[in-house]
Amino acid sequence: MATTARSVVVTGFGCISALGHNSSQFWDKLKAGQTGISKTTYPSRQKLGDAPVAEVKDYDPKKYFDAKSIRILDPNCQFAIIAADEAVQHAGINFTPDTGSRTGIIIGTGVASRESTDEILEQYYKHNKSIPPYTLPKGLHNSSISNISIKYGITGPSWIVNTACASSNHAFGQAMELIRQNRADIMLAGGTETPLSVPFFKAWEALRILDPVTCRPFSKDRQGLVLGEGSGIVVLEEEQHALKRGAKIYCRLSGYGFSTDAYDIMKVSPEGAARAVREALSDASLRTEDIDYINAHGTGTIINDQAETKIIHDVFGEHADQLLISSTKSMHGHTLGAAGSLELIATILAMTNECIPPTINFTGNDESCDLDYVPNKSRHKKIKSAISHNFAFGGLNAVIAVTCYS
Amino acid sequence: MTTNSLSDTVIGVISQVCELPASDITLQSSFEDLNISSLDVVTIAFELEEELDIKLPDDEIYNIKTVKELIDNLHLLMNELETS
After folding, report:
1. Given its phi and psi angles, is residue A285 left (phi above 0), alpha (psi -120 to 50 degrees) or beta?
2. Chain A partners within 8 Å of B45 (Cβ)
3. ipTM confidence score
């Protein structure tokens, strides 16, 4: 554990994703190795055709919000509020003005409210319709944190992180640092993303890194990633604060490591990403042999999975063969700015349930991916410490270390 | 448009935008009492402009505090348009 006076623990979490509308459904499906990937089920997305996507299924905003809120809150923001509601309830926090002033929110989002904006712009360009006044507030990247803060009276430090696929892990690291520095006692941190706008999806397709069948990270037949949507929010709390109010503590958030590749706009630099992993271990005062599990970035692209395997070999040396590694993206898809949030929740649940969720759709190793990726079936394992990787386009790396609380 | 039918239109738009029963909205109601946010105010103005085909001056929108003030402003504006 880091030798800081104020250490950070997890006291709650909530999520909504292709694997269900709460963390309990999420875990049941992860553990069972069930996929959330299919072709779209929503008429508004029919132009996606048969392309595999990991969308939040059977989502009816009317179950969660009144008509006025639905008009002014984009699904990107709705998902974050739903995840935050579960996390706050899970943590058993009653926000008073005092608690609220010592609480902040940091949420990662890469794309934000693209589908609502697409719809409004289409009406404007094609039918010369006026742009309604709620367009801007609805499309703001910070809509999620602002609306959560209003709902709960959270008045401490809050902001949005936009570092593509590393957004959530950057959010966790920054939130952890604010608690360590005594700028806050509680932080709601995580990510939210709704990237399934048709033009945006086509832009990903143009990069030729989407798998036309499904997401099969580290597998010899992998062809790319599958975009997904959702949100995960984790309640981080200063340890003594949590103990004082009798909160259930799930684990420690023990370290983070950030780095920048300065190398290529799309390819991961093994050296850059390895620095983030080493920094996270060092920040958490963990040795390589202390790590039992890695929730990998594991996008399913040929290049990422090959580079990530090399990073693990470089950092962990002989211990790499002892590690259990899985990419839960094989089930909940790649939720870009929200990826780290769902994956940290998966890691926390793996630790508390002593069960490693699998990498599904795995048909075999190839030369460049030669580690134990927990293929297709979850595995019982007591985890003392784990890390979660996120490596973003543009060479931005963020790694979070989690340690068992005992 | 008569004052009564303009009032009905305004109350109808407020009711629809803010998801409030029309019976809760009176001429004397203030936006604060009705818990109408700044975004609601500008959305109400937008909907009324679309419906009545007029343009409320930007600097007046955020200064309007009550349903009656909104109706009076619209009435004045419509009279000015009629006489010009």
Report:
1. left
2. 133
3. 0.78
